[in-house]
Sequence to fold (184 residues):
Amino acid sequence: MRSQLLLTSLLLCTAAWAQEIVMDLDDAHTTVRYTLPATLHSVHGTFKLKRGSIRFDPATGKIGGDVIVDATSGNSGSDGRDRKMHKDVLQSERYPEIAFIPDHLEGTVDPRGTSQVQVHGTFRIHGDAHEITIPVQVRMTDGKAAATAHFTIPYVKWGMKNPSTFVLRVSENVEIEAATGALP
Fold:
């Protein structure tokens, strides 16, 4: 009797865990920060989430959805620098959205803890689509997920203008940190 109860409990937990997890992203619980290394100092800034929803099946690695960031919301705290970023680099009036569309998750998500996974997908920026794999830390608590990602965008290689001047030299890569979920 005891072994039947244990087996039934295990099967119910496994069946519940095999279900797809949906993360509906909202601006209140999502941050997108960037860092652009430069000769004198690094430039730090933010972007705002426009919308997003991620669905994933921890059992199969199947993942779908999208994360859409408002390219026009880029803010470094300097009006002049931001005007140049929007006009010359991002051309955000012409390309107002930055998107990530995941298509595969590599790794295992722990249903009651923290996991490191790789999320493969397409990153759309400045009118072009680029294949990318992003390392993501996923934290699961009570069936809810929170995630943090740190990755590099080679914006110059991807066709955007380097805003360096004769005096101020900046990196050809920008570091991104994105986090979502209200979990501690």
Residues 1-17 have pLDDT under 50 and may be disordered. Helices lie at 2-17, 79-89.
